[in-house]
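Postdoc handover notes: sequence design on the structure in folder B. Input tokens:
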């Protein structure tokens, strides 16, 4: 989805940052439109000057209905799909800024787990990720049963083994969310110390594991993404 600014008169030489939205499980890309008020919520923030105009990309992250936590497995290369195939398709068809400075992700629930891990795995593709109520940052045994594969695809392991990557991560939850407790955000921020990864956390006092909570986090998340990612640029 392109922004109104993308199609505006005189913008035909302007390149735009790209924001990939990652849905939860179970869920579909349509969830962002039907429940997440996208792209309308972003448009309102852009009009207020609170966020960049972004090209929004909403890919399917569970092809075949199988959740891999956006990881490469012997059967499915979902991380490569999201970090190579999707960006390649988008950059071929739209006026995008070069990656990684113009490329970020925002996800909810399982998609938030993905938004936290993909910039760490592919720092040459994504500069920033915003994770709203992420699944366990150490990995979910119900998603990846192989303990080594699960560990090596977890944001916690990745940030502990990252050195000086130019990556920013925004992690948000609510104090009431048992699926994404604030303690894991604290543990992640502590693990990231010294890695060079920029981490910002947000804990809302109330809220469930749902889009009512997540849309309330948009101003903080999209505002932060607009400081991490480059604005539209002519040329």
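Designed sequence:
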């Amino acid at each position: 989805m392109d922004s109104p600014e993308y199609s505006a008169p005189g913008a035909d030489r302007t390149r735009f940052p790209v924001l990939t939205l990652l849905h939860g499980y179970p869920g579909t890309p349509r969830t962002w439109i039907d429940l997440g008020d996208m792209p309308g919520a972003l448009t309102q923030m852009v009009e207020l000057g609170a966020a960049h105009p972004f090209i929004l990309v909403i890919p399917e992250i569970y092809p075949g209905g199988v959740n891999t936590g956006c990881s490469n497995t012997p059967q499915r290369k979902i991380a490569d799909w999201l970090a190579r195939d999707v960006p390649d398709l988008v950059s071929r068809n739209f006026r995008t800024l070069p990656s990684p400075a113009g490329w970020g992700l925002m996800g909810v629930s399982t998609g938030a787990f993905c938004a936290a891990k993909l910039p760490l795995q592919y720092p040459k593709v994504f500069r920033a990720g915003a994770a709203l109520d992420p699944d366990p940052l150490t990995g979910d045994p119900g998603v990846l049963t192989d303990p080594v594969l699960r560990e090596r695809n977890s944001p916690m392991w990745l940030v502990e083994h990252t050195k000086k990557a130019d990556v920013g991560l925004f992690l948000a939850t609510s104090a009431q969310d048992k699926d994404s407790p604030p303690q894991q955000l604290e543990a992640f921020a502590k693990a990231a110390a010294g890695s060079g990864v920029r981490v910002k956390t947000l804990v809302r006092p109330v809220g469930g594991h749902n889009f009512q909570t997540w849309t309330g986090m948009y101003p903080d998340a999209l505002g932060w993404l607009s400081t991490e990612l480059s604005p539209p640029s002519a040329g």
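Context for whoever picks this up: The chain has a mean pLDDT of 94. Don't rerun without checking with the PI first.
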